[in-house]
């Protein structure tokens, strides 16, 4: 299979993320539907945190088994830095954005209307959260693209194709996770917004496939996986806060379980391929 065909299949795997994005266009979702969408997204993202960290830790664990302490320090340090930037970096970024939102929503004068401030803040928060999810998934998908490209570069074409199929199915569920905060808040994104969110979340699979065919490097892959895990973990924390406010504990629990099972089911092909 030519490099161009591998790149094309990598693009298809990435852009299956658009299969889940149209859910964000639902009109006036009910409170139970909002809570359910939010909870399923939590389940999917919790699975992704586990999946990303498992792949990031594997080279470190292998180096530990061989007592290669220099490699352990290098790869382990890379993972720690990636996690720190992905998690703590988003905390500071969100704090900065919250201050900007508060300043922008402040009334211009004594007679200015204030009734729209909570709604404006909620919409801004939902949009920011969706963008953060897309960014975290995009970093994750870049690492997946590296795996596809690396397999092709090593001549393991059957593995590369199976990875493409598995990651494509996986990305379809990730698209749902991106728009869940918008659907949960009743905000209906434009088609252009969905287009950009899909490019941020799914496009890196294609880019990673291109890079992976020419650059086989564990440290680079660990760095992106660490960033992805940290950013996705931050988003899970935020979505759990939304779930607690909804007060639908039983529904939330079952939908989180459903999201977890969806994550494992769509990852089954990748696991069978030996990724």
UniProtKB/TrEMBL annotation:
Coiled-coil annotated spans: none
TM region positions? 6-23, 35-57, 77-96, 129-148, 160-182, 194-216, 222-242, 254-274
What keyword terms does UniProt attach to this protein?
Answer: Membrane, Transmembrane, Transmembrane helix
| A Gene Ontology term for the protein's cellular component | membrane
Please indicate if the UniProt record lists DNA damage as a keyword: no
Has UniProt tagged this entry with the keyword Transmembrane helix?
yes
Q: Which GO terms describe its molecular function?
A: zinc ion transmembrane transporter activity
Top-level lineage group? Bacteria
Where in or outside the cell it occurs: the entry states: Membrane
Quote the InterPro entries the UniProt record gives: ZIP
Note the topology in the membrane. Answer: Multi-pass membrane protein
Q: Name one Pfam family in it.
A: Zip
Per its UniProt record, what PANTHER family does this chain match? Answer: ZINC TRANSPORTER ZUPT, ZINC/IRON TRANSPORTER
Q: This chain belongs to which protein, by name?
A: Zinc permease
Q: Which organism is it from?
A: Streptomyces broussonetiae
Q: What is the lineage of its organism?
A: Bacteria, Bacillati, Actinomycetota, Actinomycetes, Kitasatosporales
